[in-house]
Amino acid sequence: AKAEHRSSVKVFEPALLYARRLQGLMISELREAIRTDQLVLHFQPVVELKSGRVEGAEALVRWNHPDRGLLMPDAFIPLAEETGIIIDLGYWVLRQAMRQLRLWQDGPGVDENFSMRVNISTTELQSLELIEHVREVLAETGVEASRLVIELTESMAVNGSDIDRYSLTGLRRLGIRLEIDDFGTGYSSISYLRSLPVNVVKIDRSLIQGLGTDDKEREFVAAVLQLIHACGMQAVAEGIETAEQAAELGRLGCASGQGYHFGRPMPPEQFAELLRGT
Ligand code: C2E
Ligand code: CA
Ligand code: CA
Ligand code: CA
């Protein structure tokens, strides 16, 4: 059995080494990408469902790779998380998003509470630098803390480790808002939601998909909205792709929404046009 094991290792070794080498290459490329601004942010509108007004944007990172074209986050965020590069990447995203917000926030026709949503990952939440980075970028750009919404996933918020709690309360103390992303895909207990220092809950796309076609789905989303409101939190729905879904969510009392129906994530120039109403 031992010999067999050894020979199987031999067979797979070259492939494994090749994969490692590729990964190593990508790691240094990604570091370089952050240094040389190959990363870009696209912005997706967040809309007030009652009025249809654009109330904010979510910043979503892409990598404009010199050989491979525009890479979506799924192609590099996991690697950035595994290697810790996400700390620098997240810092870059935050600074870039706040600079953009600064440019837009006082423009004509822009909602006076126009806000920017930025995603963070577990590694960032667990880093002691996060609060310092947020404070620094807000000071540097002059953006009011209340305009920044940090999105974290349910499992991150629910983890409950001391350092996570410390980060969450520290961020709240700065005056920024916290949002649970992808709500409904995790496994947090209902009572736990109440105890979180969170202001907004974003209902996951998977719960929105069946809206407009299925009565049971509507009942379910209605119950989720009631739960969120009972916790004293605000609701946002993501993944709205049809007018029916938007209308249904509005009827159910969901304040805000986001999805292809209102606009895909787009480069800043295009988002500026959207804001100007052109
Ligand atoms: P997310 O935060 O849940 O972002 C929403 C994703 O759904 C985005 O994909 C967006 O393009 C897509 N989407 C928006 N509206 C619709 C819709 O109506 N229908 C459908 N089918 N999809 C919609 P994207 O940009 O590929 O981002 C994927 C994930 O990558 C994000 O999921 C987020 O978890 C992560 N990510 C993106 N930017 C960053 C970042 O700057 N930092 C970190 N840590 N993670 C990021
Ligand atoms: Ca998000
Ligand atoms: Ca989401
Ligand atoms: Ca998601």
From TrEMBL:
Domain named EAL: residues: 23-278
Keyword Cell cycle: no
Keyword line: Coiled coil, Membrane, Transmembrane, Transmembrane helix
Claim: Coiled coil is one of the keywords in the record: yes
Name of the featured protein: Bifunctional diguanylate cyclase/phosphodiesterase
High-level lineage: Bacteria, Bacillati, Actinomycetota, Actinomycetes, Micrococcales
Residue numbers of the full-length protein present here: 229 to 506 of 506
